[in-house]
Amino acid sequence: MVVGYAWIEAGIQPFSFLSYVLVGIPSLAMLGTYCALGGLSPRRSDIGNYYRRKAVGASLHSVAPWLIVLAAGAILESVGLALGGRSSNVPTLSTTVDHLLVVRWGRWILCVTWLLAGAAPLLRLWRFLGRRAP
Length: 134
What we know:
By secondary structure, this protein is mostly helical. It has one domain. Helices cover 76% and strands 0% of the residues. It contains six helices and no strands. The two termini are 30 Å apart.
């Protein structure tokens, strides 16, 4: 279903009214599902405790590799943009995405990735609620 939806969305004219509607539908659906699962409820302390337990082991040492990757990406992007944004020696994330956005299958890949990234927290919350149900 996600794959088909993304294929349809990838074929729509960018920045048109329909494209905004097609982006809004899964966004609102995911937000509604998250709310229905109690993810935004202040009275659901069990959900808050779940996320706190998940974050207990987090420290600067444990997230340092991700911070290094993020910093390297930001530095490469800055250098590429300083070189005019179209350097063949220093590819930037924006030039890579530009190449993907030219063809429908590239837009489709980015759309599927976006939909799955948005659904991941919902799936984790759903599994958590399913495990603790009586």
